[in-house]
Amino acid sequence: MAARSVCRAGSAAGRALLWGPRPSAALLTLTRKRGAATYAQTLQNMPETQVTTLENGLRVASEESNLPTCTVGVWIKAGSRYEDPKTNGAAFFVEHMALKGTKKRPGSDFEKEVESLGAHLNGYTSREQTAFYIKALSKDMPKAVELLSDLVQNCALEESQMEKERVVILQELKEMDSNLVDVTFDYLHATAYQGTSLAHTVEGTTDNIKRMTRGHLVSYVDTHFKAPRMVLAAAGGISHKELVDAAKQHFTGPPFTSKGDSVPTLSRCRFTGSEIRARDDGLPLAHIALAVEGPGWADPDNVVLNVANAVIGRYDRTFGGGKNQSSKLATLAVEHNLCHSFEPFNTCYSDTGLFGFHFVSDPLSVDDMMFCAQGEWMRLCTSTTESEVTRAKNYLRNAMVAQLDGTTRVCENIGSHLLHYGRRIPLEEWDARISAVDAKMVRDVCSKYIYDKCPAIAAVGPIEQLLDYNRLRSAMYWVRF
Questions:
Q1: Angle 13-19-21 (CA atoms, 0-180°, nearest 5)?
Q2: Is 458 within a domain?
Q3: Which of 197, 224, 256 is the last residue of a domain?
Q4: Using alpha carbons only, how large is the chain's radius of gyration in Å?
Q5: What pLDDT digit, counting tens, does each position of 234-244 carry?
Q6: Same-domain pairing of 338 and 234
Q7: Is 99 within 8 Å of 158 (Cβ atoms)?
Q8: Is 248 contained in some domain?
Q9: Residue 358 to residue 343: CA distance in whole angstroms
């Protein structure tokens, strides 16, 4: 944001020239009303998401806007959840290799062609999806589609390049081990979904990466990179018809000729109330994550749980406001120096989820912070007020709109929605769902998922003060007379 220069005026007349006349109360009221109307109009006037399904099952979706740039990407229903213990890490390895050349554009030729457009290519892998996307000028959209199709169906997976990337991935794994937030959440998945595919890390294990062969990667791509499991999404200054035409021209190779979904339905990953503790008194801070089983992506309870998380709020020592923050838990954290930071989360998958909170604290504050955090959960279940819910809904609306700032975020929103929900849910519908939430709904839904449930707990660092599991389990309900 550009800084505004401030001039000092030595008189009232000078200040009036700089800042203009003070608006009347009537004008201020009109401005407020116009702002409120603009929000409502914005929801109604959002560009329509157009979706076309090709004969091979590939879904092509786009949102057109008057922008000089666009983002085009392929979202694939594939990730670490689709791996077995021996091949865990294959999806992450494929993501690395996909950006290192294709059969048509070997070696660095692929990267050079992307750079010649002045475009930006990126990708990521999660537990249930893999994505590759290009941000470029709108006029270069057809070329971006061609590059993406080449990347997905003609990835070279050369042995020599694999050895180079193997070294890179192993180094990344070492660096990730030093990120205690990621380590804590990997442990949380491992204990919550132990013995199932959701317990796998996205990146895989060191032993698996060392043993991974080209055959493993080829098998993974051939199995999962199928047209019915893909969404070609685009946002920005593009035409949906041109996008569909480009898709018909380029997404027609062998991986896209099969109309059937060759991957069997995933077995349910059952949640287990249990814990993992990795005590290391040499670390300065303790990382604790506690979660109960939440709903899957399509469950309407997610909206209510997101409002509940907004009631709890989040906190970091770098935040301003101190003990005057609206979050009760943040106020307690400031007044009693309970933690360095805390944040609630609602992580969803196709048929299950993790609803919980994570905090970082000094070793001697672990017990007090856990007591207050669990107490806040119990308060959500029993005594949430309408004023708290109103504030939380406003916060959630703001966060919802902020997520769609820029073509890349919109494109990702489109691709993810079609994979998770089968359609793009418009902002107007999200706003209506949020508006329908009241304090009673929050209390009822939180009681359904939290009250008297067995939690999963992951703790890393100097955690001697963390009480045993049975004591933490007993704080998941209140004895009321």
A1: 75
A2: yes
A3: 256
A4: 25
A5: 999 999 999 99
A6: no
A7: no
A8: yes
A9: 5
449 and 311 in a common domain: yes
On whether the CB atoms of residues 152 and 97 are closer than 8 A, the answer is no
Q: Give DSSP secondary structure letters for 195-223.
A: TSGGGS-SS--HHHHHH--HHHHHHHHHH
The two beta strands, 120-125 and 130-137, are antiparallel
d(CA 113, CA 29): 54
Domain boundary among 222, 256, 290: 256
Are 458 and 391 in a shared domain? yes
Which residue numbers are catalytic? 95
Length of the chain: 481
pLDDT digits (tens, 9 = 90+) for 94-106: 999 988 888 888 8
The answer to whether residues 317 and 335 touch, using CB atoms and an 8 Å cutoff, is no
362 and 450 together in one domain: yes
Give 279's strand partners. Answer: 461
**What phi, psi does 218 have (nearest 5°)?**
-60, -45
Q: Are 62 and 231 in contact (CB under 8 A)?
A: no
Q: Where are the beta strands (DSSP E) in 138-274?
A: 230-236
Pairwise CA distance, residues 57 & 203, whole Å: 29
Q: Report how many domains make up the chain.
A: 2
Q: pLDDT category, 172, cuts 50, 70, 90? A: very high
φ/ψ (deg, to 5) at 190:
-65, -40
Are 246 and 332 within one domain? no
Same domain for 340 and 247: no
* Residue 293 counted as domain residue: yes
Region 358-384: mean pLDDT is 96
Residue 5 lies inside a defined structural domain of this protein: no
What range does the domain containing 331 cover? 275-475
Res 144: pLDDT: 96
Sequence-separated (6 or more) residues with CB below 8 Å from residue 209: 89, 93, 166, 169, 170, 173, 203
Q: Are residues 60 and 186 in the same domain?
A: yes
CA dist 303 and 294 (Å) reads: 12
Q: Are 439 and 388 in contact (CB under 8 A)?
A: yes
pLDDT tens profile 191-211: 999 999 999 999 999 999 999
Q: Which of 5-14, 209-218, 305-314 has the lowest mean pLDDT?
A: 5-14
**CATH code of the domain containing 332:** 3.30.830.10
User: Helices 25-44 and 427-435 sit at what angle, rounded to 10 degrees?
Assistant: 120
Q: Calculate what percentage of the chain has a pLDDT beyond 90.
A: 74
**Residues 285 and 230 placed together within one structural domain of the fold:** no
Which 3 state secondary structure label does DSSP give 363?
helix
Whole-number Å distance between alpha carbons of 78 and 219? 13
Does 108 score more than 50 pLDDT?
yes
Mean pLDDT of 341-349: 96
Which two three-digit tokens encode residue 179? 């990120």
User: In 322-365, which residue ranges form alpha helices assigned H by DSSP?
Assistant: 328-336
